[in-house]
From TrEMBL:
Origin: domain of life: Eukaryota
Catalytic class of the enzyme: transferase
Species this chain originates from: Citrus sinensis
Protein name in the entry: Phosphoglycerate kinase
Keyword Cell membrane attached: no
The EC number(s) this enzyme carries: 2.7.2.3
Amino acid sequence: MAKLDEKPYAAIIGGGNLCNKAAALHFLASRCDGLIFVGLMSFQIMHALGLPVPPELVEKGANDAASDLIQFARDKHITILYPKDFWCTKIHHPNQVEIFPSHGIPDGWEPVDIGPRSVEEITSTITKCKKVIWVGPVKFRFSSQYSNGASKLTGMLCKVSQGTCNVTVIGSMACKAIAKVSSSIFGLNMVESGSAVWEFLKGRMLPGVSALDRAFPFDIDWSAAYHDPAQPLVVDIGSGNGLFLLGMARKRKDLNFLGLELVTHCRDSLQLSGITNGYFIATNATSTFRSIVASYPGKLILVSIQ
């Protein structure tokens, strides 16, 4: 089962191009308790906070977008973390590697990986979370051969995913980093198409999803389905014979339960039982879930997938 309101909830954000992803970052900030920047976008955040940043790492025209995000997070009491130190190499002597604080990278040096203090701070934050999403790579412009920070981050996420933390990893580079560190990815949610997720987070309707929604529209009379349609909703995808949902509906009168199954014979049992907080729909949830849930007048609090 995947709870939609697990807290604390943190987003680890890698990659660059903050301007293009500003809407997605605002969406994450509206849902999460903390934003943790680990890639090129961290320099735009630092720059907007007034910290010294190597000019070549500042994204042109991104200062306003970064400042707006910081203010939005402050208004929502959302924590923003950025690397406090970096592994750096000397530009003309790439074999020379040293650690510098993020606000004190000397001229002639370039960051190639997050430093140990940054990893420690991220670890301290993540180990307290119940839900983590990692989207975008821990990668800087010159850092293809340096991945110690990314390795430690992936190892930490693999570890917390074995406990009570729900971890989702998005993007091909992040998924590959996880695969290198751990031979077992059980407990991790892996989504390789990072670009599609970024577009979704921006609020844009993906063409495939839009086509499915148009093909399978649902218009449900929720007042006829439930005695109190304003109660929080629990959706059970793959409800089978419906016994699980019926049992839960009897135990939790304060919740409404909706079962989705390709073929369902549960409605007769529902009517005979006298349950008024349970309902079944014969449908393919892959194509109709959004359409069905979008019209529900109450709050969706839990989705179980059998």
